[in-house]
Amino acid sequence: MKDLYEMRGQGRSIRGIARELGVSRNSVRKYLRSPGVPQAKRRAPRGSKLDAYAGYIDQRLREGLENCVVLLRELQSLGYEGSYTILREHVRLRRPRREPRATMRFETEPGEQAQVDWGSFGYVGADGRKHRLWAFVMVLGWSRAIYVEFVRRADVASFMQCHVNAFEYFGGVPRRCLYDNAKVVVLGRDADGRPEWNQRMLDMSLRMGFELRVCQPYRAQTKGKVESGVRYVRGNLWPSVRFTDDADLNRQSLEWCDSVANRRTHGTTGRRPWEMLAEERIHLGGLPERSALAPYLRDDRRVAHDGYVHWEGSHYGVPWRWAGTTVQVGQRMGTVEIWTGEQRLAVHPRAERPGQRFTAPGQWEGLPRGGGRPPKEALAVQVVVEEVERRSLDVYELAAAGGVR
User: Fold this and answer.
1) Less CB within 10 Å around the terminal CB: N or C of the chain?
2) In the predicted model, what is the mean pLDDT of residues 220-245?
3) 300: Cβ contacts below 8 Å, ≥ 6 apart
4) By the 8 A CB rule, do 182 and 118 touch?
5) In Å, how far from its chain's centre is CA 395?
6) Which residues, including other chains, have CB under 8 Å from residue 313's CB and lie 6 or more apart?
């Protein structure tokens, strides 16, 4: 500005000043007329396609959902037509900053290792009360293929059953499975630091042909692949599920494994886990017959005289002819199965709270009237519960008979 005024004071023409400074004559006139340095006018901020959804995004962020892939899916269902990039930048500016953590990655050969962990998930049920589920997560180390199943109890029986379901899903058994120091696997360590295995889990691993391995104490990051898998379930699957019962939830989790988790391009391998699993499957061990695993997957229970089996705080019905006998009870994919040897007597949805009672269809069919007649209150329960169960029994049969590939 000072040079411009000096040049004008020297009698220079506007044309000459404009030519020397490389600007237009109108710009020279504007600067000469202005008492100070002209300021550019501030433009009104442009609207964003996210503006209409800002409140929803902020609410989901407060609820802990920071996964932009899930958010994009939800926003698109609400009518959002913008891009993923705009959403990611919007969330980045509002997401609390995290300090980066460094760790060393260990890769394994095909069929060599699976990593296993539990994840705890809370929710509020239709009864308005807080409930808790456990997610069993297994990740194959080479292909990164993942299997997820939700259970009510993180006990040994559920843990072993989930292993069988996961191996069936993958199509074979890895040479070893890596765990943290959970009691379902290792009870402690001896004076030399060697693991003292849970005997039931050890027996099952020997029967199925895989080796038990545990992380060193306080080194859970050794199984970082499954740790990432649990976080992936928490951030991608869990926020989007709406379920009516355990079987429904596990159907959704299997669909998620098939269509989302194992179909995406993995960030580390750069390939789809499902494609790599097809290559890894030939390196997995064979699956034993389920009959050979029955002792590890079922509990012995005695059938009461009213035809119900008491298991984990609830009652499950079987045909009345089996009253007074010992049967075997197991759970699979949100259902409870009752067996005698190789014959399955009944399949029920698994109870969501203690004290529930489930009656088998035709439980008292053919029962002679008289001394062997069940009590009136049992008959009343039969009428009410049987009517409810018939509406969805085919679904539970499907889940129990072939829900896992």
Assistant:
1) C
2) 82
3) 326, 327, 328, 329
4) yes
5) 21
6) 351, 354, 355
| Count of H-run helices and E-run strands, the chain | 14, 14
> CB burial class (10 A; 0-12, 13-18, 19+) of residue 264?
middle
15 within 8 A of 25, measured Cβ to Cβ: yes
The tens digit of pLDDT for each residue in 307-316 reads 999 988 899 9
DSSP conformational letter for 95: S
Determine the residue type at 66: E
Cβ–Cβ < 8 Å for 365, 374: no
Please answer whether residues 229 and 221 qualify as being in contact, where contact means their C-beta atoms are separated by less than 8 angstroms.
Answer: no
More confident residue, 314 or 107: 314
CA-based angle 6:8:13, to the nearest 5? 145
Task: Write the pLDDT tens digit of every residue in 161-188.
Answer: 899 999 999 999 999 999 988 888 998 8
- Whole-angstrom Cα distance, residue 270 to residue 242? 31
**Rounded to 5°, angle at Cα 60 from 55 and 66:** 120
Could you tell me the pTM of the whole model? 0.60
Q: What pLDDT does 374 receive?
A: 52
Closest CA relative to residue 135, chosen from 256, 220, 287, 218: 256
